[in-house]
Amino acid sequence: MNRWIRTRGNRAIFILLLMVAQSARAEEASILIPKGTTRSGDLVVLGKRIFLEGELGGSAVLVGAAHATVSGRIRRDLVLLGADATILRGAVIDGDVLAVGGSLTFEENSDGHPQVRGRVRTISALEAAVLSELETSPLTRGKSSTLVLSLRLFLLFAWLVVSFGLLFLAPRRLLRAADDVPSRLAFLAALGATAILTAFFSVAFALSILPARPALAVGAILLAALVAAKIFGLTVVFVALGRRITRGAPRGSLLFGDPTALAAGVLLLGLLSLLPVLGPLLWGLSSLAGIGVALDAAVSREPRLVLAAS
Amino acid sequence: MTARVMAHRPFAPWEVRRARAWRAPALAAGGLLTASLVVFLAPLWSLGPQTALEMWARVMAAGTTAGLPALLAAIPTLADALGAVLSGTPGARAALAGALLASGATFAILARRLSRRPSRLARAVAGTPRG
Predict the structure, then answer these.
(1) How far apart, in whole angstroms, are the C-alpha atoms of residue A49 and residue A29?
(2) Which of residues 87-116 of B touch A (CB under 8 A)?
(3) Which of A156, A173, A249, A282 has the greatest number of C-beta atoms within 10 Å?
(4) B72, containing H or E segment
C-alpha cells in the first residue's frame, strides 16, 4: 500500500513536471558555465545539457531529460527531478544533492562522496534503506511475499487500534456521522476528491508565488488536515460498513454494538484491500469518501441535544 | 413490553464505555496481530522465539517508520526545487491558478450543497407519519 501511494505520488509529480517542462519556451540545447566564471542565483534547467565548469552562486535544479556534468562549484543544492547528473572528481557542492527518479553518477566511486559537503539523498537510496532492513531477515526472496503480508496485517491492526481509540474518545460525533454515510457515499467520495485536488493545487500555487518555507508550511497544514480527516472519516466508513454485516445481531450477543461493527468493517475492507489492483482501488475510494465524511461532520449543524416530539 | 423494547433498542453511544461491547473487537484485534506474527514467525521459528520476535519487531518498525525521517529531511530541498521550477516557468503560475480555481469552485459548490442539507432532526420530523 505504501509503495502504491509512493508510486502514484511520484507519477503525479512527474506528470506535473512534464506539463511544466513542455510549456517552457525552447532555448538552446546546452548551457555552459565556463571555468573561471561565476553565475549568481539559482539555475533551473528543463530538458537540456549543462556543463558546469565554473561557479554557480545558488542551487541547480534539473528537470525532465536534463543532464548535468559538474566539475566546478555549486554554492547551494543540486536537485534532480527525473534528470541525470555526473559529478566529476574536482567538483564541489556546498549543499545537498537530491535525486528523484533520475540517475546520479560520481566519478570517484568511493562511499563518502567528498565532492558533496551536505547530504546525498535519492529516492532509490530511501527505498534501499528500508530494503536493507528487510534483507537482514533470513527470509529468502521467494518468501518475501509472506513478509509483506505480515506487514500489511500489522498495519490493519494499527488501523484497528487507532479507530478504537477514536470511537472510545468521540463516540457521539463518530456514530452520528456513520448514520448518514450509506445513502451518500458517492457524493462524499466526490467531495473528498475535490478537497484533495484543491489542497494539491493550493500547495503547487503557493510554491509558485511564495518562498519555499512559507509554501511548505501551507503544505504541511493542509496535509495534516487531510490526514486527520482521513483517519476520522475512514473510521466512520468502517462503522457504516460493519453495521451492514452485524445488523441482524440481537442485543446481548457477541456481534452486537458499534465497536463490533467497527472491527467488522476494518476486517472486511482491510482484507479486501489485500487483493491485487481492486484492493488498493477500493481502499483509495474509501479514503476519499472518508475525507468527505469528515468534512460533512465538520460542517454538520446537528443539535447537541435532541428532544423527542411529544 | 418494556423488556421487548429494551431488547430491541439500538446501540447507544454511551455504551462504548461498557467492557462488554469490546469483547468481539478485542478478539478481532488479537486475531490480526496473531495472524501477522504467525505469518512472519512460521519460517523463522527454528531461530528461537526471542530472535524471531526481535526480527518481527525490527521489520515492522522498518516497514512502517524507517523511511520517514529521511523523507522528511528531503522535503525542504524538494520544496525549494519545485518552487524554483514553478516560479521560473512561464505559464505555470497561470495554469496552476486556473486549476486551483476550477477545483476550488467544484469543492465550494459541493460544500454548499452539504451545508444546505436539512439537519437530521428536520429530516426525521419531515419523514415522520402524522397520526
Answers:
(1) 7
(2) 87-93, 95-97, 99-100, 103-104, 106-107, 110-111, 114-115
(3) A156
(4) helix B67-88
Average pLDDT of span B28-40: 92
Q: Does B44 touch chain A (CB under 8 A)?
A: yes
Mind telling me how many Å the CA of B1 is from chain A's nearest CA?
16
Cell of B71: 523523507
- Count CA within 13 A, CB hemisphere, residue A274: 16
Question: How far is CA A233 from each of CA A150, A177, A202, A226, rounded to the nearest angstrom?
Answer: 25, 9, 22, 10
A101: closest CA among A153, A66, A144? A66
- A55-101 pLDDT, tens digit each: 998 888 887 778 899 999 999 888 887 788 999 988 999 988 888 77
Q: Give residues with Cβ within 8 angstroms of A54, minimum separation 6.
A: A33, A34, A35, A36, A37, A38, A39, A72, A73
**Which residue, A202, A203, A192, A201, is CA-closest to A226?**
A192
Does the interface predicted TM-score (ipTM) exceed 0.95? no
Residue reference for cell 523511511: B67
Show the cell assigned to B109.
459548490
Interchain proximity A263–B29, CB inside 8 Å: yes
Per-residue pLDDT reduced to its tens digit, A146-194 = 777 888 888 899 999 999 999 999 999 999 889 888 888 889 999 999 9
Listed residue (A246, A241, A248, A271) closest to A260, CA to CA: A246
The one-letter amino acid at A142: G
What's the pLDDT tens digit per position in A27-45? Answer: 457 888 998 898 888 888 8
Each residue's pLDDT tens digit, A194-212: 999 999 999 999 988 888 8
Q: Give per-residue burial for B31-50: e unless 16+ CB within 10 Å, then b.
A: ebbebbbebbbebbeeeeee
pLDDT value, residue B4 = 75
Q: Give, as one character, the DSSP assignment of residue A116.
A: B
State the pLDDT confidence band at A264, using cuts at 50, 70 and 90.
Answer: very high
